[in-house]
Amino acid sequence: AQKITQTQPGMFVQEKEAVTLDCTYDTSDQSYGLFWYKQPSSGEMIFLIYQGSYDEQNATEGRYSLNFQKARKSANLVISASQLGDSAMCFCAMTFEGGSGNTGKLIFGQGTTLQVKP
Amino acid sequence: NAGVMQNPRHLVRRRGQEARLRCSPMKGHSHVYWYRQLPEEGLKFMVYLQKENIIDESGMPKERFSAEFPKEGPSILRIQQVVRGDSAAYFCASSSTTGTEAFFGQGTRLTVV
């Protein structure tokens, strides 16, 4: 069965510094997608970045990059130059092939609470 | 281009009542997903629908919960005879194709009193 593990319940980072949020996953599928979302205190889910399992280059989206290490089954999120507005619960998630092809169903980790200090 | 619209944003129901949660996907999106988030937890998949079809309901509780996505109108998540344990945030997401980015609505916070 597929599983996402986020081992950091909470992380603190100083404004303007970089931070890495850890995510490991478990799947026997060859084709899968890895996502990061953030959920600020207002409650909405905001997409940050996506990495496909066949993508050879690490994904980047502005200040966000995904450190994809396929052999280690890790998909860590790196946020450079943290901003106060980055404070949120951050979730790692994945989609997978399964028996019926990739249905787009997301499996989420437990989340990491990121707090950016001024 | 409006995003995924969920209503109501907040819903209070007494034990035993019915809760109806609505989700209008983004324009052009035919894939709809419902997730539940209990306090201090991640989102858990409930059901995946396409127009008039339930594709995967492996995360739906066996009783009291149902979902539909009719040909016309929003997707509906229906919870009959609600209990306190149903109190949670319910999120809807939509995508244009499977496996690509899913866009989330703002969620419906259900409180059962």
Description:
- Chain A has 118 residues and is mostly beta strands.
- Chain A has no helices and 12 strands.
- In chain A, the strands form 3 sheets. In chain A, strands 2, 5, 6, 10, 11 and 12 form a 6-stranded mixed β-sheet that branches. Chain A has a 4-stranded antiparallel β-sheet with strand order 3-9-8-7, with no helix packed on it.
- The model of chain A has no long low-confidence stretch (mean pLDDT 93).
- Chain B has 113 residues and is an all-beta fold.
- Chain B contains no helices and 11 strands.
- Chain B has strands at residues 5-7, 10-13, 19-24, 31-37, 43-50, 53-56, 65-68, 75-79, 88-95, 103-104, 108-112.
- In chain B, strands 2, 4, 5, 6, 9, 10 and 11 form a 7-stranded mixed β-sheet that branches.
- In chain B, a hairpin with a 6-residue loop joins strand 7 (65-68) and strand 8 (75-79).
- Chain B is globular, with a radius of gyration of 13 Å.
- The model of chain B has no long low-confidence stretch (mean pLDDT 93).
- The interface between A and B is medium-sized, with 24 and 27 residues.
Keywords:
heterodimer, A: 118 residues, mainly beta, B: 113 residues, four-stranded antiparallel sheet, 0% helix
Report the helical percentage of chain A.
under 10%
Described by strand count, sense and barrel closure, the largest sheet of chain B is: 7 strands, mixed
Radius of gyration of chain B: 13 Å
For the CA atoms, what is the radius of gyration of chain A? Answer: 14 Å
Determine the structural class of chain A based on helices, strands and strand pairing: mainly beta
The helix-and-strand class of chain B reads mainly beta
Total count of helical runs of at least 4 residues of chain B: 0
Outline the low-pLDDT stretches of chain A.
Answer: none
What is the H/E string of chain A? Answer: EEEEEEEEEEEE
Number of helices of chain A: 0
Q: Tell the overall outline of chain A.
A: globular
The overall pLDDT average of chain B reads 93
Give the percentage of residues in beta strands of chain B. Answer: over 45%
Extract low-pLDDT stretches of chain B.
Answer: none
Compute the average pLDDT of chain A: 93
Estimate the strand proportion of chain A: over 45%
